[in-house]
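Usage

Read records sequentially. Each one opens with the input sequence:
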Amino acid sequence: MLSDREKSVLRTFRKFYMEPGEMLCFNGIDLDTKTPALNSLVAKRFLIRERFNGAFSLTTTGYAQMRRSG
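and closes with the structure output:
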């Protein structure tokens, strides 16, 4: 089960038509407010933390979850 904040993060990926392995960068207040949800999605293996600060990409599992979460 995903929290509302985790669903919000996945909606952001969906908004930009992200696919597995494509990097999306969060910054500023957006990064500050979404960091707990981003960390949780990394722990669930839905996202991969990239080398750039605030950058994440979807895993194939995360992509499937994003498509289901609407």
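Summary fields computed downstream for this record:
- The first strand starts at residue 23 and ends at 25.
- The chain has one domain: 4-69.
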